[in-house]
Amino acid sequence: QIARTIARALRLNEDLTEAIALGHDLGHTPYGHAGERALNRLCPGGFTHYRQSLRVVDYLEKDGKGLNLCWEVRNGIITHTKGAWARTLEGCTVRYADHIAFLNHDIEDAVAAGVLNPTALPRDAVQVLGDTKSRRITTMITDLVANSANCKNGKMQFSPEVEEAYGV
Description:
- InterPro entries: HD_domain.
- It comes from human gut metagenome.
- This protein is mainly α.
- The chain has one domain: Orthogonal Bundle (Hypothetical protein af1432).
- Helix content is 61%, strand content 0%.
- The protein has nine helices and no strands.
- Helix 1 packs antiparallel against helix 2 (14-23) and helix 2 (14-23) packs across helix 5.
- The chain is globular and about 50 Å long.
């Protein structure tokens, strides 16, 4: 939903954005990143969920025939986490949306588990991003859209203030 919202605001291809967003985490292991680290130690050549996501759509779906996905979707899936950025703005949108989502879900999960007291969040970051999950998500989406409104030049970005508060 975050990726589609950003794509719509920037007048990008919403269907392409959603296809990348739906496929980008298919390769996650049980137990999240801890499971990924364990498999990375065990598998010859290592293991990453984004490469596994591509294997799922290329080879495992449709009884081993794979999905006939365009290059843009496949590129967005393989580049959504780290390293090289996607070659499309839609792929970059999914990467930003993923960061917005997991930052806020991680905070929410830590608070719910009693591991983090919301008052322990850095005051400067709270002042810039907001003091609730909803405010942080809204701030980050609004800021990204405002600072990427001219993204036809191929670049999306947060403002320096949000980038610093987020710790990008």
